[in-house]
Each structure stands twice: as structure tokens, then as C-alpha cells.
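#data-curation
PF: Archiving a pair of folding outputs for the training set. Convention for this channel: one message per protein, sequence first, C-alpha cells after, nothing in between. First:
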Amino acid sequence: MSQPKPKLMVIDDLDSARAMMRRTLARGYEVFDFSSVAEALPAVERADFDALITDLRMPGIDGLAGLKRFKAKVPDLPVILVTAFATVETAIEAMKAGAFDYLTKPFEPEQLELVVARAVEHGRLRRDNSRLREQLSGAGNATGMVGSSPAMREVTSILQRIATANVPILIEGESGTGKDLLARAAHAMSARAGKPYLALNMSAIPENLAEAELFGHEKGAFTGAEQAREGYFAEAEGGTLFLDEIGLLPLALQPKLLRVLQDGEFTPVGSRKPRKADVRIIAATNEDLAAQVKAGKFREDLWFRLRVVPVRLPPLRERREDIPLLIEHLIRKQAVRLDRPPRRPDAAALRALLDHAWPGNVRELEHALERGLLLAQGEAITLADLPPELTPAPASADGGDASGRYRKARDAWERRWLEELLREAGGSVGKAAELAGLHRSTLYEKLTRLGLADRESKG
């Protein structure tokens, strides 16, 4: 399915000027034009525009006054001012009022297209960061990650203290624990939030191309380099570069990354002229870098420089109390993406999800629920809809002693989860059921079985 075109608002009192801009931009955008600020003001709140272009001098409310009103209504909307009467003072005033850019008539169509493309991209980044910040401030979790277990609260606490500091971060954790999400959260919480965030997985790059990918290259630097090209460091200027699986960075390149971290400089392949780099490095690994240092596969000085503040993301088996919240969150997310009803797991499916070891962590859980939503035919996700490896094993041949011990351990964990859930819901079974994504009667049966039914608030 093709993506909808970005929406543009064009305001000019001259019919010819509006027609020209509409023709120029119609190929890539959905253009709505208005003859005055007063006419456009109600529309800017009704529709989700990606950028706005307004003439400066118009009868009634002029473009500068309109700019201030538009920014008051939609702060993240990029506004481009257009005028035939440009002065330095007007340009300064426009920028102070929040204009994204300033075009002087007459201008070439290519100029307009370039400025609009930059404005739309800038607006998209601002909205993405705003949405992420909303997630960061929700549920007491500043990382945007789902979970209230002690292990995740520790991650949140560390990230809140270091996100705004301009230092490298090393995220350690198994595959599927959410290292990229944590890196994005650190970027969104930092002063670099409005600048680029780029991610590069070192396992996806052939060793002979890694240097050119990171630092760029000059024309003719190697066979096939028919033109100069910027690397990830140049493209991430002012922002954040996330280097996943940093343990796979070729040993020969490690001193060059260390130079960037220490001196803020790099040299493109084929060049002798160093370039400055204002980029924050966030690295991640699912390997034991200390062991790699001992084995001579990773430089000790680079390891020390990266792990100024290491953050360890716990595997899902170490924060099992977060699984019910993750199930609810991931079902809502995948239901929207797959255009499916947000079906919840039935009792047997939920028990299997709670009992599974999850060696693939949150990513494996997400894929299991994705499969469940795709295959479910009734009102709930059943055990048959989940991956086969989640089906409980048959009882053991030793008379049931092993399975009995397992059930006791599982019930003890479930009891702790229900007690925490009731505390969070203030003793209300109805609210607790809503938080857990369970039917009230199902939750009440669990409480009764575990002797917790009397914990319900009588208020």
C-alpha cells in the first residue's frame, strides 16, 4: 500500500502565486491553498499538515503575525515565509518567531521544492521525537520500554541520569532485549533530539567496506568509488550514531573509532584531510567484550572509552513480572500494524506465554503474539495459534514430582505478580483486570485460587 502524500498549506493573497506553488509541489505533496491567514487558521487545527508556506505581506493578518498564531496552535509545524520585500531585520524577526526558512521572490521552483522537502523532514523528526517523549513520560518509565520490574526501574534510573550528558553509552544485553529502543530513548532525551539519529549494525557490513561506511570516501579511493560519498559520521553530524554489535568492529578500525571518541576527528578513505565530528556514540553488544579484550579481539582502550557508563538490559527471564504488561502492549501495537482486532490470549495461551523461557527475549515474544493475531479465528488467541514451542510438555514419567515442583514455582511467581497488580490498581479487581488485559471473572478466579480474593478493596 502506497504511503499518503505529505500535506502542505499554501497561503498567498495572489491567485497566480498560489497556482504557481501548487503546480510546483503537486507531484510530491497534497496541496491546500488559502488566500488569507484568517481563512487558513481554522483549517490548520482540523488537518494534520506537514508544512506551511505563507506570503509575508497580505491584507488583514500578515504572514509574520500569522506565523506566531500558527506556531501557538501547532508548535511543531514548520512554517516557510515567502516575500518580495526581504530585509535583514524581517528575516531575523521571522526566525525569532519560529520560521523554519525564508524565501525571497522571485525564486526557482527547485528552490521551493528543496526548502519544502527539508521542512517536511524536519517536521517529521520533531513529531517522532514528541511522540517518543510522550512515551518516555508515561507509566513512570523514562526509557519508553514496557516494564516496572526492579531490573527495568534500575535501567530507567541510570538512563535518566546519563541521557543528557554528552558521553558515550555502552548498552549490554542479549539479542532481542530492546537495545535499539533504549538507544533511541537516550537520543530523544538528550539535547541532540532534533538532530539525526542513525543506526548501523556492524554485522551487516562486509569488513572491507566498514571504514568507508563509517567515515565516507573520496572519489577514486578504491575500485568502484566513482564519486565521493559521505559516511555515517558525516550524516549524523550534531546527532547520535548507534553502533550495534560493536564487538564485530574490525580490529584495524578500532583505533579510528577511538580517535573520534577522544579527539572528535575522522579521515575519509582516500583523503589526507581530517574532518571534525560532533556525534554522540551509543554502542551495543550481546557479547562479553571483557572476554574479547582478554582474547586480543577488542582494544582495551576503546572498551574503557565506550563504557564510561555501561547499561545492562536484563533478559526477559530475569523480569518475568513484566510479561503481562508486555503482552498487552505488544498486542495493541501489532493489532494496529496487522489491521487485526486486538485479541487477547485465553487462559491456556496466557499460561503458556507466562511459562515460556523466552530465549529470544522481547523480540521472540513479539513474534509469538504476531503469529497469534494472524492465526486467531475466534475472540481470543488460543494455544493452537501460538508457536509450537510454547505448547506445554506432557507430564513427566516420575509420578509428577517434577511437574508439581514446577507448578508451585509458577504459582508463587503468579501470586507475586497479582499482589503487585492489585497494589497498582488500589485494590480494585476491575482496574487490575483492565491493566492486565484480562476479563474480570478470569482475574477473580486466579485471585480465588491463590487465596487473594479478600485483597479486593471494599471501597
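PF: Second:
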Amino acid sequence: MPDREQNSQNDFMIEKIKTRPVNRRKLIRRMTLTVVMAVIFGTVACVTFLVLEPVISSRLYPEEELPSVEFPELPEDQEEMSPEEMLAENIPSESPSPVSPSESPLPEQLPEETPSALTEERVREILDSTRPDIDNFSQMQDTVLKYIYEDKTDEDGNITKTALCRYMVTIRGVTSNVDWFDDIQESSNQVPGLIVADTGFELLILVNYSPLKNAESLVLDLDNGTYRVNAELKGVDQDTDLAIAAVIKNRLPAQYLEEDGLAVASLGSSVGSRMVGMPVIALGSPLGVSGSIGSGMITAAGTQLTGPDRSYRLLLTNIVGSRNAEGVLFNLNGQVVGIIAENNLGDGMENLITAYGITELRRIIEKLSNSEPFAYMGITGTDVPEYIHNEQGVPYGAYVTRVEMDSPAMLAGIQVGDVITSMNGSGITTFDSYCSQLIRLIEPGQAVQLTVMRQSQEEYREMKFTIEPGTL
């Protein structure tokens, strides 16, 4: 009996409880359902975020639309003061000595006309009476330096003429490299910049693009690198190698936003009969060194450079500079008249500073400032001279000298020898007017109606073409 009880206890002690077998199908089904629901939830959340985020951001942080930049066109007849006018302006007028009534001349004794400006003889007399010496030369150089670095003020302390240096800044393109020891080294290229606009939110600076095109970031250097402010490109024109860099104003130190801080340059005119002989000052790096200066005069202004849909006036000066010169030409009114360009005039003149005329660049700078694309037609042309018009009967307009291969103009049927006389109903009398209308008024993809005069046998016949410009 005791043995049976002991066996029963032993049997109870060795009894095993078996686990319930796993249903793999059900487990896989649950896991699959969980993954599918997670994917669906994540997708719905992402779509909801993408849809609602712009709406919520626009209400919480409304963005103000930046005003577009516009440079008013100057009248073509605006010219610089002549040397006689400048001389007369700076000579104090002599007050006439009092005359008694008895000595006053009779009406018939008065001169018939009083000249308002100095006569040539009077100018020559004044110049002959002035003998230059070392003091005169020193005063002249001092005057130029004051014109560049010092503001001119009136009796009340108001600035009447801004120092030219306040229009100029330095933009640096920074690139990071890793050396053999895994240390990060920074290399940079710097270019002079011209402040061309202030939108209220940012300053727009005109620079040469080539030295900056491989840079990882752009900075505005102030006080020889004491302050560094981030900048970014707004637009690039490959044809002129010009670009616009923008700097947000609230990132600038306060002293540079005051009345005597950075200033926006005034764009002058590069056309007119008095361009040749005009005194100019070159700022930026005309000698290939940042901060260098040069002075002289414009010696030629008749060279016209043309390319596809572009026309520029080239200003030649007697300022000796570097082949790598960059910068700006200012006249004696403190206005920009030219942007220093690469010299392609050939042997014997390669060290003379040349510049693109600012009048032809105005429309390009305006497009770059507003980040707008350039319309492209692919037409190179020239003006029709008066003697060709009279002798051969070629109508006035933009004479086509070349049409780019596979360009919108070629595909539309424009040929070499055609004369463009109208664009969208507006008359065209020169190739420059064609370029101006195309850049200012036409957007890429916008249908353009060109009226063309084409020679047929011995006469010119009118033809009309519809062209859809591409993007340059």
C-alpha cells in the first residue's frame, strides 16, 4: 500500500504540461496586417503633412513678395558737361561795380547779346594764366582721392555727393578642401562687387561670375574680412559673365546700414557725343589687385560688339591695367558708365582698360536682379548705315548677319540678309533696339510676331513670322 502511494506521488511529480502549438499562418497574417496598417498610416500622415504644411506655414509666417527691380531708361540725349561748362561752373562770378545813374549806359549802348558761357578765348586766357607745378599735381591727386573716399557735404552737414568707395564691396567665393591629414582647408577667390539695388529686404550686388562659379558658398567681406555675411546668387548671364549676388540686409552690421554706410550706385549713360574725352575713375581691381584704382579718360566709344540676341558698346580708356582687370568705371558725377570687361582688342592694346557701356547692360542687370530668364531667338545682326540705305535701298532695321543652328529663329524660317523691322507691332530701327525689346519685353515661350523685309530679285518684300523663343 505504501509503495502504491509512493508511485502515485512519483507519477504526479513527473507530469509534463505541454504548450499550445503555434499557428504560424495566423501569426504571419497578424504581422502582415500590422505592417500594412503601419504603411497606410505613414502614407496618410505624409500626404496630410505635405498638403497642410504650406497652408499652415503661409498663415503663421506670411511671406512678403519682394518688389521687382527696375532701372529707368535715361534719355539718349543726356550728355556730360563740357569742359567750358565745368570751368564756368567753378569760377566765381564777379559782381559788377556799382554804377551811378549818370554813368549808366543808354539802351542803345548795351551789348546786343550777353554770352551765357565762357568763350573759347576766355577759356584759353584762363588756362594760360595757370601754370602747373608740383603743388597743382598734388592737389589734383588729393582731389581724386577725396572724391573716391570722402563724402561731400553742404553747410548743414547733408551729403551732397557720396564717396565712390561706398558703392563698392568684396564678394568672396569659398571652397573647402581636405588635405593629406584630413584637415579641412578653405580656399577662396574674391571679386569686386557694385551695389546696384536695395529692395528693402536685401542688397543686390553686381559681380563677375567666372571666379565664383566653382565656389561652394559666397560671403560678403566687410572691413577686410572683419565681418563676413552670407550671400547667394540670384541670376547669371553667361554671355557677359555677370551675376547678381544678394545679401539679406538684417544680417549686416548696423553701421553699414546708416546714412554713411553702404550705398546704392547710380547708373548713368554710356551714349552721347561727349563720351570720348570723358574723365573716368576705375574702381574694384583694375590692376588685378583688390582695392586698386585708376584714373584717365575714355578714348573711344564707337566699337559695337554683337552676338546672338545681344549688342554692347565697348568703351576704351587710356588707363593702364591688368588683363585680369575687374571693376567699374565712374564719371565725375559719381555715376556708373561702364563695367570693366575682358580686353579682346589685340596686340598693343591688351593692357588698356575696356568696359561694356552701362546703357546696354541696364536691361541685363534688371533681368538678373529679378531672377528672370532671358528669351533666346538666335539672331546676330547689325545696323543698316545711312549710305547703304540710300545707295542700295536696304530698309532700316536689324540686318541679320547670322542665324544660330537649330535656333528658334532658324526653325521659323529667318535667313541671313533679312531685315527685322517690327516685333509685336513695335518698330525696330537698329539691332540694338531689337535686342532691347527682346530682353525687356519678351519671355521664353511667348509667341513673338516678327515683321521682316526680305530681298526678292531687286526689291524688298514684307514677310511675317511667328517665333516661340527658347531660354538662354
